[in-house]
Structure formats: structure tokens, C-alpha cells
Design brief:
Elements: H1 2-19, E1 33-36, E2 51-57, H2 69-75, E3 77-85, E4 89-93, E5 119-128, E6 136-145, E7 147-153, E8 158-164, E9 171-174, E10 179-181, E11 186-195, E12 201-210, H3 230-236, E13 268-269, E14 276-277, H4 279-286, E15 290-291, E16 297-298, E17 314-324, E18 333-340, H5 347-351, H6 357-364, E19 369-376, E20 398-399, H7 405-417, H8 431-438, H9 441-449, E21 458-464, H10 485-490, H11 496-507, E22 512-517, E23 521-522, E24 525-526, H12 528-535, E25 539-541, H13 549-559, E26 568-570, E27 576-585, E28 588-590, E29 592-595, E30 600-603, E31 612-620
Parallel strand pairs: 1-3, 18-19, 18-21, 21-22, 22-25
Antiparallel strand pairs: 2-3, 2-5, 4-12, 5-11, 5-16, 6-9, 6-10, 6-12, 7-8, 7-11, 12-15, 13-14, 17-31, 19-20, 23-24, 26-30, 27-28, 27-31, 29-30
Helix pairs in contact: 2-3, 6-13, 8-11, 11-12
Length: 682
Amino acid sequence: MIQKSFSLKLISASICTAFLLTGCAGNYHGSFKAVCDPFGKRQSGGAENGLVGSLFYLPEGLKDSKYSAEYFRKHGRLADASIYVSELNVPTSKFSGGFVDINGKAVRTAGGRLIDEAFAIRFKSTLKLAQNDKAGYYQLAVLSDDGSRVRIDEGRGLRTLVKSTGPLKPRLSCAKRAIRLEKGEALPINVDYYQGDNHQMALTLIWREVAAPKNQENIGKNNKDDRDDVFEDLANLTDTKEDETDDDLEDASLHDSACGKGGRDFFFDPDQDPSAPREAWLRLIARGWRVIGPENYVLPKEMGKNPCVKPDVGSGECFTERFTQPAWGGENSVDILFVTDSVRDHMYGRSEAADGVGALVSELGAGVDYNVAVILGHGGLSRYSGKLWHRSSRDSVLRSSKMSLIELEEALRDNLRYPAHDGFSADGMEGLFSLSKALKGGRLNEIREKDFFRKDAALVVVFVSSGTDLCTVDSLRVGYGVIPYFARKDCKNVSIASVLGRLRKIQDDRSLVIAAFAPKNYGRYSNGYRDLARLSGGLVFDLTQITSADSYRQIARKLAPDSELRKKILLSRDNVEADTIEVIVDGRREAFSYDPLLNEVMLKRPGRPGSEVIVNYCRKLAEPSPAPSPEPIPTVVPSPAPVPEPTQEPEPIPEPTQTPTPTPTVTPPCEGPGCGGGDIGV
């Protein structure tokens, strides 16, 4: 560990010298602290994968309201921290937590201030093809907020490939030439990033495979040598001009409609946690772009290993399983109709409804064709009643097939903000009458000729009103004073039920969703638009929710209920190491849970219809079998001299015991009486 810290110290010191930073040496606080991906991503890949970044900040008292990179060039200081990331995949999101090292301590300036804004990072690594990547030409692009610059060494030193000027809102900047990568080749890459205010940030590096561009042999010869001063480079990012590098080599095949586009929530919705991709990003991924993953970044040997990656717990058997979420189960086309009042005091609130279109269509997934139109709630005396409204400079039907999302939203915002006025309908409070008129006879045919109310499209009707509808029964008695005769005449045959019936008739068996953004109550009476939405099984929202992207996502889910999406994945291999699992939905890592008993991954956010879901995982390291004990080598021990067995003396045979011959008893002669009477034997 001491050796690793020492090597980091030498590397950082050399970086400091190379950057020619004023006061850099004085800012050094000892061995550099490792900060593991401060942008909320889980480290993945091996210990040799990822990028390492040097962190710079402005000293106290030198913060500028513009946070210009020129300040960094003159006054930047090197923080005692090394930033380790697996990849550059930071969508537009909020950032205010600063940098925390592996010991849980916040990285601060020499004066003790938390570094959460007005900072810059230079990331270094090498770019390499992964196992499944094809050798060939690749075009890079960077989504950043604020400034960024990507430089690659293709054998002639570091050259600028793409940069994004800053400070600005998130924008996608695309390289104007491609690079060629062969299998096994590693190209040094530097990515410089500059952040101003801590409101939000973005830094996502993507690429796509392209055909061999024209004049490829001349690429790079017009490049000037790039200085290795990160702040000199970043100072150039404050320019408003596009990067002029290799302009004369631009190839038409490298064009993409999203290049140069952007906005606070154009590609991602930063108000969600985590931020959610919008339609523009999903379409980008569908065109072949993808985030450059951890396996494509290999740390140079002199930078050592990535200390933030856990030791490899797998056995080397790693797997990828992928599938595509089912289409949203209905029509591939959607017509979105806004029925709105024309009250002058409501013009800005009403126009905010345009910001929700992106959230709505993004929830439906890539590839959905949608048209958007507006009908004003005018009465029978208005020439705009029952017709599609548009400003003279805008189309009456806004088509996704002909406009980008940001162009469509801008046009819709104009149509909603600047309507014609109609004093005879309390300025647009006859939405039910006007819509009913549009759904029958010649008006319906006229609108269909303009490619709306299409016979193969789902229909979403969104009411936006600051009041209730004059044609609801209760509204005839409140709020507007005496209801004029012509309004009573308009509403004679119009009711909530009749309007719903006409909508269902033109839709037949196609999807229909009705939503209303309107006040909850008008006096003590209900709101007609809200009543219609409820009767249809649709959605009702308070008028204050018109700016909430979640409201529009709910509308989309009515068309494409996520119950049809696949949320559980049964892994095909067992013995899975849980720490190695990662889930990627539409190019972004998503949260999940894992049940080891069922060997099942549960998605927290399954994506949208048509979303691509990838699950990467490895098996557990097999328990090592104990090594067999080697056969002992027999030691030759000299046999001891044989000890003669002791000779056993034979036990003495006992002498046979001789039975003594009994001595004959001599019987004395019988003397006396009784001795007669015969012979007596011995």
C-alpha cells in the first residue's frame, strides 16, 4: 500500500508539472486520496479498467460569477485526490455532494471549502476494443454540461477529436472525423471536463461504428499540436464557436440529427432520481450509438490498478443475457390533442404543457410515431371552434416524422401560448362543445386530411383549463354570471357522456386516454373536464401539476401499462456471484434486486416498450479443492542387526517318580485262640 501511494504521488507530481499550474506544488498535501466514482455509478469492470482523473479547483476568493475557464488557467489548484471512474456515463443530473474519498472524507480546498462547483477534471486512460467489438472506424460524441474536450493519440501525439463549448446547457457534440481501432490496439485518451455552478452536470462519452470515411489517410495532418495544459485547453471552451479541428475533413456519413442539439432536459430528465432518458436519447441509442463501457478503458501500467474495483470474485466465467421489452401492445402511432382555454392570464401556465410531450413519448419508447395538435375551447360564434388551431408561423399538426422533439415542443409552446381569443365563450370555456364539433361530419374529415385523428393511431386527449366547461350542467349556474343565449344554444346537445361517446366511436377498438389539468373544484361544483376524464377511466391532475413530467408519464402508462413489461429475469446459469451482477436498460445502469434462491433478477425500472435490457454477471469462484498430499518418499533406514532370539533352555524333564515297592508285611504266626480252623492267605 505504501508503494502504491508513493507511485500515485509521483504520477500526480508529474501531472502537476506538466500542467504548469501556478502554485500547484504548494497545494500538494501528500499521497493522493482515491475517490471512487463521485457521480453515483457503481464501479464495474476489472481492476485494470476505467479512467483516473486529476481534480482542480479555484481557491477561495477567486470564484467568478461566470466560472470562466480563464480563471482556472490562471488560478487553478490541484486537489489531493485522484478520481477513479469505470466509464464516463453521467447523464444530465444534479450534482452538489462534492467528492468523498474511500475513507469517507470529503475532499476540500486548502482553505477547507467543499469542492462541489467551479472545478475541472482531467481523465486519462487508453481506449481499446472489447472482446465483442469489431475492428474498424468509430465516431465519438460527448454529452456535457458544462465544457469538455476529448483528445486521442493515434500515433502522432494527443489531438483534439471533439469538444463541447461551455458554460452552457447540456449539448451533444460529435466528432467530425472517425478513428480506427484494431483488435488489441490501445490509444491514449484524455478527457478534460469543466463544471461551473453545481445546479447540474453531464459527461457521457459515446461512440458508434461507421463506414470508412473519405480522405481518412489525411486525417490529423492539419491538427496543430495540442498543449498539455488542461486549463489552457478549457479556456478555449468558453468560445461560442464550434471546434474548428478537421472541419475540412468532415464526412457526410458522420452526420447525425442529434449532433449539436441539447437543452436542460432534451436528452435526460434531471428532475427524476436517477435521471430518465427522454425520446431524443432513446432514438440516439436506436441509431447505433452506445456508451463507451468499462471494458473499453484500460489504465496504463504506470497508473497502477483501479483501487475502487473489488477483487475479482468470479471464476472467469462471465455471461451476458439480453432481451428487448415487448412493444407497447398497440398502435405504433399516437395522436396527442390538447383542448385548451384561451384565457390571457393563463398563457404562460398553459404553454408549459408543451414541456410534457417529451416525457409522454419517451415513456412509450423509441420508434413511436406521434402527431400533436391543439383545439381551442371556443363557442359557436368563433371561426376557430371545432378546428385545429395554430399560429400563422406554425403547422396545425406537428409531426415527429418531420420535426425533432425540441422543434416540436417549441412549436407547440407557441400554439398554446398565443391562441385566438373568444369573449363569447368566456375565452375558451367551451372545450366540450368545440371538441364535439371537431368529431363529426365535415370537420372530422378536414382534420383527418391533415393527418390527425388517424384511423391507425392511438389517441390522447389532454384538457388544459383554468376553469370549468360551460356545457357542464352545474357550470350554467355559477361563476360566469348570466350565461349568454348563444352559449346555452351551443351546449344544448353537448354533455360529458355524448363527447365520450363520439371519441370512442372514432377510435373504435384503438387505444384512447383522456386526461385533464384543471382546478379540482369551481366554487362548490365539480369540474366538467375532470368529470369526463374520470368517466373514461382516464387521469385527472390539478392545474399546478402541468409542469410535472411524472404526470405525462402516467398518461403514457395508460397507453402502455408497464404490467406488460418484463420485470423478472431468471438467469440461465446458477452459482451466481451477486456482486458481479449489473443491469443496463437502454444504455444506462439501473437498480435491481437479486433473489439467490430463485436465481432471479428483479428490475426496479424495467424501461419502456422496446427498451433493450442487458444483464451481466459472473459465477462464483469455485471452492479450491485441497491439493492432494504428495506421496511420502520412503526413507531408507538401515535395518538393525538381527538380534538372535534367545535360546530357550528345555525345561528339565522331571524324573519319573518311582512308586516305592511296598515292603511286605510279615504276619506273625497266629498264636492263641482263633488261629485254627483253616489256612489264612497273605
